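[agent] plan:
  1. take the single chain provided in the ticket
  2. run structure prediction with default settings
  3. attach structure tokens to the ticket
  4. add a short note for the reviewer (M.T.)
[agent] executing step 1
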Amino acid sequence: MITHSVFFKLKHAPGSSEEKAFLNAALALSSIPGVNNFQCVKEISKSNKFDYGLTMEFDDQKQYDDYSAHPDHVQFVEQLWAKNVEDFLEIDYVQTSIS
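[agent] step 2 finished; step 3 output follows
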């Protein structure tokens, strides 16, 4: 299982209509085939500069790659992400065991 997480800071004021519109558009990504356990989270710690995060899981690399190339995801990144996000951190990981 692959967990894809991206934490971000928007260019818009908290509670603004632009912020709400962006987050609603992000929620639509959950309908892309292969996306599991999609969550939009709000940062509550002051230990970093990000305000929100999106997390989701994929069963395997093919599903993750299909999501990344899906037209709805590509359109979201090109038309909304690039002009609304001030800064972000993307982390993709798989569970590991240490022995």
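[agent] step 4 note for reviewer: DSSP finds three helices and four strands in the chain.
[agent] ticket updated
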